[in-house]
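Researcher: I need the complex structure. Ligand is glutamine. Inputs:
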Amino acid sequence: MAKFIFVSGGVISSLGKGIACASIGRILESRGLSVTLMKFDPYINVDPGTMNPYQHGEVYVTDDGAETDLDLGHYERFTHARTTRFNNVTSGQVYNSVIAKERRGDYLGKTIQVIPHITNEIKDRVKKVAEVSGADIVIVEIGGTVGDIESLPFLEAARQFRLDMGFDNVLYIHLTLIPYVKSADELKTKPSQHSVGTLREIGIQPDILICRTEKPLSSEIKEKISLFCNIKKEAVIQALDATTIYQIPIDFKNQILDEIIVSHFHLICKYSELGDWEKSVVEKVLSPKNKVSIALVGKYITLQDAYKSIYESLIHAGIYNDTKVEINRVDCEDLEKSNPHKLLKDVSAILVPGGFGYRGIEGKIKAIKFARENKIPFLGLCLGMQCSVIEFSRNVCGLTNANSTEFRPKTKHPVISLLEEQKKVKDLGGTMRLGAYPCRIKKKSLAFSLYRKEQISERHRHRYEFNNKYRKLLEHKGMVFSGIYPKANLVEIIELKDHPYFIAVQFHPEFKSKPDQPHPLFRGFIKAALERQNKLSL
Ligand code: GLN
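Model: Output:
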């Protein structure tokens, strides 16, 4: 039977609960255990797919085509867990399914209530993930902060879980903040005492407290936390601010957090280190030999979380190339109004990410033209590929006003357009081309030299596609269509000849990169950036 860990958060949001959960997963894997991770999101939306990036940050897509919370990205990057649509549970999904059951008459005339109907539905979803994944340990991150009205049913379900499954099979971890007050030169434990107090009112006594802090916790502070929060001293874990998130599993391991968890569950597993993680990941991030500067030309650049997986993928490729990747965030709307030379001339490479809507598009197209003409390494992702097609059609093939029908429905040259089946779609939620699709790669292409195989699978999230009516013309003018989804003959990868590195893809490679397994497209991109950087500094 699986063992279950519920992780709640206290005091403030943005403490890095997702990274803490992912790191716990990693250290448990080091003990030979298999893990899976899931996220409870207390909002009423069914999924984050229809939310604005300012509301939610990146939407992470799983192989099975679910639009999920970006924390699932951390889970997949840190561990071997492969998440599916079952790994992200929202209040919207829970209520949707309870109401559908009620309408079907499944509850046989009962009054439908938060306890037990909503809480049962939540618990069933956790059990389902345990069953489908077959993992030894299921780690459940409870979104929000203790004290929120919205997360109460999830916490209540977590409380009941220990009752249902047995004390030793369930563990509660609370992530909290120990603020440092400069004027008093002191770390303060009071907010954590309150937050644990609130949890206890709900009926949950945490077994482990993970304390985010900017200063190390002294033995006295740990004792105080232990006494007031009713937690064993060794289970008060310090989570000191770190230069890289990939340091966190090491910090946890150094405080034998894995051992504390394993012994709570009475599991017998051999001690083992984190393997290569420290040498081949953390040391490389902290002391790289080289440096490149990548321009990320996007719309949501002020938002830390909007391009989360892209930023991480760039770091991974940097690890592989022993290179610090500095990201120069360029607002595509600023670029619309200015000379690209001013904003882009010193960069080692240019990346145009995905997005929706016309705002800023002409700036992205300008950046792509600049990369193409000046032979600056370029990587286009999803909308980035669509913009590359528009740019090439307009400026190389002479198709003035070529566009995507997303931006100009009546454009004379719809080089990017909707497939017939998409034209019939009315609902916005969950109706794009979503999840993993196979792609066949042309031999003797840049894509083949990067992937070194002919069959790949990558994750998608878009509605519009390359319009095959224009394929011949663009090919004739030098565009290479090096990746195709064979079943529907859809263009997945484009590249340019006579350019050091110009590649753009209809899918999202950033969802499959890991620190110890960087994605080939990002790896090649940073290598090309480095080569340009070296040339520039000669
Ligand atoms: N807006 C484009 C589409 O729907 C691209 C989407 C994206 O970049 N994820 O096809």
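Model: Summary of the prediction. The two ends are 61 Å apart (CA to CA).
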